[in-house]
Amino acid sequence: MLAGLACISLALFNAVGAQQIWDVWETANDQSVLFERQFGDVPINFVSPGPTGDADIVVDDGSVFQDIDGFGAALTDSSAQILNDLKNQDSDAYWNLLGTLFNPADGAATAALSVIRVPLGASDFSPFLYSYCDQQDPSLSSFSLDAAPFYLWSTLADIQSAAQGQLKIFVAPWSAPAWMTEDGTMLGSTFDSQFTDIFAQYLFLSVQGFANKGFNVYAIAIQNEPENSNPTVPTMLLDPDTESAIASQLRSLLDNGGFGSTKIVSYEHNWDQAAFYPVTAVNDAPQAFAGASFHCYEGSVTDQMSFFDAEPGKELYFTECTGTIGSDWWEDIKWDTENLAIGALTYYARSVILWNIALDGNGNPKLPGGDSCQDGCRAVVTVNSDGSYQFNQEYYVLAHGSRAIVPKDSGGPFGQRIGVSVGGPLATKLQVGAYKTGRAASAGTDWNRYSLVVMNCSVQTTIEFRGQQATYNFPVGLTTLWWFAEN
């Protein structure tokens, strides 16, 4: 189903001395093509400008915005269980799946996912309720990450191996331990602020514990969805002032404990409160928080600008959205691309992370007794009981977005968003994101990669870049293409 490696030599670009598009990857709305490289005998050349197309994409590489950290999904306990079961059943299929998801090799027909999000303790996709310190123990002497199912850590290690050094790990608790809450439960209680310092220490021990297992935590949130309370699944109310107090303590512990590069992010909740909760928290502790992260379940992606406008020096992350079993394949592709793969980045997010990376065809397993995802949460990949698996629509959205910004060279930088606009009578038929990816010093070249992600109808389109013009007839579907040009 997926094409093989696309072996492109940069010498070709240097030889012609002009920009040419050889790499075009398509996913068609009718599923006849699924993230496949479109091979052609002749490249798409940038030439002297002529008449513009029905849609005219203007790329402005003089306007450079945020760095992009990558695309990915969550490794919940349930996802790890599903993947571990596959490994035990068919090891070759397991490693092929991880390779298709995470292998970053340049030109490969893989998603090259580079971000994984891991709950700290139980979530609504866990086999049982647990924290890393279930007994009341203010000294945290009984703290242990081994409270989690063993297969979480083995699967995370395999993913880290498949990602070949490019994996960034985001973590967040769904609740503090029950004894740190007002009602003595992880199921829909409220954090008890008398445990502020102890919870900060708990989070520090989590980061330290990950490191001891061989995993560097890139970013940690104080609490997942701090305004969500559900008595059937791990959730916990946490007000922004208390969140900022915890973050201040945690920042000091991380800095003094050798984890100064680990970022702390605020909020981890829906777009609709972007102007309120995270702004309050970040203003209370500006030195502690790197920024804030957002989910898709209420509000609009444009709400991210409320936070950006209030805190222009802080970072934004998009960290959760899930598909629903039985929804329309192409409508999902369109929504996820417009709002996440292109939209979240357009509104300054540095990441696009979806919910479960793998589940079965019914959106299971889930926490016994939990009532979340009543309509069935669809994972990025569905793994069947016979060891077969299929990539869902979320996979293709992630793959198209990720391939536009992953490093061109081993050890090279990730992409940056750059300026782009669309004109012409059919401009509204396209959604476009544009990105620039620099080169590693070892590459010995200053020819950057310039990429477009385009969600499109069938439109004859011109692409303008540095006074030159290329023409391409975008089919109905999702397209990622790129070319190289001197820095």
Automatic annotation (TrEMBL):
Keywords linked to the UniProt accession: Glycosidase, Hydrolase, Signal
A biological process term (GO) from this entry: glucosylceramide catabolic process
TM annotation in the entry: none
GO MF annotation terms: glucosylceramidase activity
The keyword Zinc is annotated on this UniProt entry: no
Endpoints of the signal sequence: 1-18
Domain Glycosyl hydrolase family 30 TIM-barrel: 68-368
GO cellular component, one term: membrane
InterPro entries hit by this protein: GH, Glyco_hydro_30, Glyco_hydro_30_TIM-barrel, Glyco_hydro_b
SUPFAM superfamilies tied to this protein: (Trans)glycosidases
Family membership: Belongs to the glycosyl hydrolase 30 family.
PANTHER family listed in its UniProt record: GLUCOSYLCERAMIDASE, LYSOSOMAL ACID GLUCOSYLCERAMIDASE
UniProt name for this protein: Glycoside hydrolase family 30 protein
